[in-house]
Amino acid sequence: MRGPDVQWYVVLSAILFSTGAIGVMLRRSPLIILLSVEIMLNSANLLLIAFSRLHGREDGQIFAISVMAVAASEVVVGLGLIVALGRRHVDLDVDKLRTLRG
Amino acid sequence: MKAAAWICLLLPLASTILITLAGTRISRRVAGYVSTLTTMGSFAAAVVAFVQMVGESPEHRGHLTTSWTWLAAGPYHFGFTLLTDQLSMVMMLIVAGVGSLIVAYSVGYMDGEDEERRYFAYMSLFVFSMLLLVQSGNLLLLLAGWGMVGLSSYLLIGYHQDRPSAVAAAKKAFVMNAFGDATMALALFLLIQQSGRLDYAGVFAASPHGGTIANLIALGLLGGAVAKSAQIPLHTWLPDAMEGPTPVSALIHAATMVTAGVYLIVRTHPLFENAYVIEDLAAGLGAATLLMAGLIALVQTDIKRVIAYSTMSQIGYMFVGAGLGAYPNAMFHLMTHAFFKALLFLAAGLAIHAVVGEQDIRKLAGIGKLMPFTKVVFLIGSLALVGIFPFAGFFSKDSILAAALDRGWFGVTIFAIGQVGAFLTGLYAFRLFFIVFTGEPSAFAREHFHSHHGKEGPLSMVWTVGALAVLSCIGGFLQFAPFWHPLSTWLDPIERPLAEPATWQEWLASGIAITAGLAGIFVAWTIYAAKRVKAPRAVPLFERKFYWDELYDVLFYRSAEVLTRGLYAFVERPLIGGSISAVSGALGLGSRELSAAQNGLVRSYALALASGLAILTVVFLAAR
Amino acid sequence: MANFLVWVVWVVAAFASLASALAVVSFSNPFYSALSLIGNLASLAVLFLLLSGEFVAAGQVLVYGGAVMVMFLFVIAYLGDKTEESPWSGGPSWQVVGAVLAGGAILAEVIVVVGLKAGNFLSSPQPIGRSFGTPAALGRLFLTDHLLAFEVTSIVLLVAAVGGVVLGAHARPVDEPSPESHART
Lengths: 102, 624, 185
Hints:
- The complex is a heterotrimer of chains A (102), B (624) and C (185).
- With 102 residues, chain A is mainly alpha-helical.
- Chain A has helices at residues 6-26, 30-55, 59-87.
- Chain A has one domain (6-87): Orthogonal Bundle (Helix Hairpins), CATH 1.10.287.
- Helix content of chain A is 75%, strand content 0%.
- In chain A, α1 (6-26) packs antiparallel against α2 (30-55).
- Chain B is mainly α and 624 residues long.
- Among the domains of chain B are: 303-543, no CATH class; 549-622.
- Chain B has 25 helices and two strands.
- In chain B, a hairpin with a 2-residue loop joins β1 (63-73) and β2 (76-84).
- Chain B is globular.
- Chain C is an all-alpha fold and 185 residues long.
- Chain C is 72% helix and 0% strand.
- Chain C is globular and about 60 Å long.
- The relative contact order of chain C is 0.06.
- The chains are: A mainly alpha (102), B mainly alpha (624), C mainly alpha (185).
């Protein structure tokens, strides 16, 4: 079965990636930012799988699995931070969390 | 004989080192005796060397001894070489002889000073340096002695450290001498370029005959001689140098150091003969100086300054002699001048010492009545200075003028100037004598005069002055040109003179000179002793020393000041200071602007990341 | 016929992923955003299946959807209602414009880059066998060619676990911030 060529997957992945990027840049809640980062990671995974299919080798899929594992770890740490913030009753707004300024 | 020459040189050095190292462990008197005895020992060694040299044949009298290789750099080797020949022998005897008399005099004169030990260490250092200068076997060692003599002069002029005028005078002397040192060094560079060596024989053989290089070399050496001997245009330091103690003025600024310039010209005369323009320049400068100094001496009111200008004038005569090629005549005048000028200074020192250090002749007027011995020796010195037979100056000065007649119209001009100078010499010398040593003592003198246990001065001062007076009387008879001239014969193998006056020229010169001198004495007597004619008002031109000091002030000091101020205002502050503050300002501004990017907002950091990624991708694509 | 079906599935899945991605970044309620992300993950899993990545698709649903998203939902529930007004506001005025521009630039660039570099190559996928994308094949690769990646990933997971424990530990009473830490800024 044929189905769309890889170009279509490239375009889709690109749109998903930009959407995630815009979400990171424009949302104020750290939770949503984390979710946007997940979108970006997933778009990259999609591209990896597509090209793995193009080359007929599974290395891309290996890569994608590793990416998934790393994304999971990152979410753990990120959520842990957010929970710690929430416990201290800090406003969950990245515009207010700016002590690391120069 | 070599041993004698080395002993002569090194004894004063040993004295300096000894006095310096002993410091306060020896008394002041002892320091004076050490210095005096070593200088006398030096003279004795010089006499021994002289006797030995007399015994040798005239062609073999030059002895070079090298103790070690002083400077070895690539193809250039300079040894610590002493040259003991007829010319250096003459200088050694003068320096050590007159020097020992003056150092002995200092023991009495400086008694009671705070820092006598320092004084005697410096005096011994000076004697050593001067002997090094005259005994050096190559020009490099001569330059070393030259510089050390300048150093000793600086140290001794500024001996009274608490007097700002003395310190300033010492600096002035040193700086002007440094100028001469620089021109000499340049001449030495040229010589090395020409011949690769600096010993006299090599240099004389390799120097070019005429041409720009030869002129430059001679000019450089002349610059050094002019600075050291206080001739125009580097003469302004000598009157100020009178700030030093009187024996210093006698030894350094009358008898020996200022004559080093004459010695240099005579020693390196082949180089000057290769550049006869410069030789004529030397004679011309000497003539101009003797005239100018004579005029200035007419209006001076400080006893030491009159004698200082007299020194300048007499050295002008020596320069005339050396510049015309009459080398033995110049050396003879150097010798007699050492005698009577030192005598004049030391006799003046007797008077100064007796009247609480006062040097103004108006205040010292009439002191001769209270100090008869001083009056007599001063008279002897003055007569010798004017050149009256049978005193020393007569024989030496006139022979120089006679040699001038041998040189065409240039020589005749110089002859005329020299005779005018003789008139002036008589005038100013006896103006001084009549004012200070004749007539009634002034109120000041009467009030402040104190004798030294009934005598006019301590024994050490009196006997040395007496010895110099004797020398001034008989010293001239060493050479009476038409009849006997042992000095010329002695110097002949190395210093073949260019000008040998005929007998009639000698008589003519002497006749006119004596007449001029007596005329000067008569005018002085009329004005100052018999007081028949009122003294004319002092001409401002003479009083302001022909405005040389003012000229140098404007030329060098003020222009340097303007230059530094201008540089500071226009270069240092705006450019250098400004650039530094601009850099720091820019850094501050830049960092302030950049720190605005660190606003702590995560979202803007994310935006920066994304934008950077976008831009870099384009860059990498384009640079593919 | 089969090709047509594949295309239809692809279009549906693609649209679903795009719509859910937009929903994630647009909702003001984080709960809805998280649920939209689950939808995004599911549509991507379908796309993986279309690309013969069965194991990866299964892993996506199980790990991502089953574990990561569940964690997200737990945290959102724990934190309570954090609905924010006007999610797109705040920050410097050029933020929105700049973000859209940057995002658009990245989009264009990815397409251009990959299009330029790959060109015709993208239209000819290699033939694959039946064992493509099976767990056995992936497992073999993990334990031979990519052993290092395998081990390092496990370490990363360990680190994340430790980090999570540390971050989630019971908060000790927060002391007054000491004067030095303030002065140092």
